[in-house]
Model the fold of this input.
Amino acid sequence: MYEQRVVSGMRPTGSLHLGHFHGALKNWVKLQSEYPCFFFVADWHALTTHYDTPDVIEEHVWDMVIDWLAAGIDPARATLFLQSRVPEHAELHTLLSMITPLGWLERVPSYKDQQEKLADRDLGTYGFLGYPLLQSADILMYRAAWVPVGQDQVPHIELAREVARRFNHLFGREPGFEDKAKAAVKKLGSKKGRLYNELRTRYQEQGDEEALQAGRALLNEQQNLSMGDKERLFGYLEGGGRMILAEPRALLTESSKLPGLDGQKMSKSYYNAITLREDAASVTKKVRTMPTDPARVKRNDPGDPEKCPVWQFHLVYSDASTQAWVQQGCRSAAFGCLECKQPLIQSILVEQTPMRERAQRYLDDPTLVKNIIADGCEKARALAAETMREVREAMGLNYS
Ligand code: TRP
Ligand code: SF4
Done:
């Protein structure tokens, strides 16, 4: 809210594949040039389900960061860090847990879904129930405006919004709020102060959304207000108390859905994935052996792209003219499936070449990756410390 920050995390579950790239990473790469972005490895979240295999997590952490960098995440633009190296996330999680009704967590759909899906693991743990609240802490810590996630995560973002609202409701009402807010308006200077008051009136009396947006933008630009005053002015603008934690919104991007090689969801555990940095020979072989429309038994049998996973790949990778070529050639049996796959193999390899090149630097010198993460953790911790000061104070924990 203070600036339009973007926060997102990924659990370190092993090498990323093209499904991750087209479903999430490509979007992160775009966002990093539009917003201040914070991308982190959710290693604690990985432990909620994989607490019995901690050794694999470490390896996955570094592999995943290299995959991010390979995909084009630029550490000069985005802040990259590890959740567990910013222990403030745990502190905020604990403090938020004090005000989070149990029912809110039990009702999050992924709670029961995942327990059923991962029936081979014992997920009757405290940590697993708290998973979405830990996620709320990850997000609220940086006062994120936007959280790019998939559809399945939307209930988690909703929870974060509700928790923020409840927190502000419980702790944002300080004695003398009105006077303090007015004093803060004065600090804006006379011209901006007048504008702020005007926008506030327009929003509160006429419900003018544009005035609200303009008011927020005005506050976002202020460099020399204290954090506390900013919170007061954000809250005062809307007619509430201090807004200590900002309500985030899910940023659902229309991501091209890339299925697995067999048409099911792409997943390492289904053996139907192409990893981000897979070598060219292996990519070629995998695509060449991809199943196609079963109706095309012989070279002269016509087919239907709608019944073929290769077509789904063309939808992601090919331009309109190639797509038209596929439609036409498949239905008329003008060419065989291997020929149809050829431009696809080309496009995937072209996409992957710069990724492999970027990754090589980091594979050759792993200290580069560690340094990027160390720098990112430091930046994240500085912001987290700021938020936690506010949170502790609001909850009556600033003893001296
Ligand atoms: N739960 C998310 C997932 O499984 C990962 C995650 C953890 C996350 N903390 C987050 C995503 C904060 C966005 C913001 O994909
Ligand atoms: Fe699939 Fe292409 Fe073969 Fe048609 S020609 S079945 S789209 S691989």
Residues 177-238 form one domain.
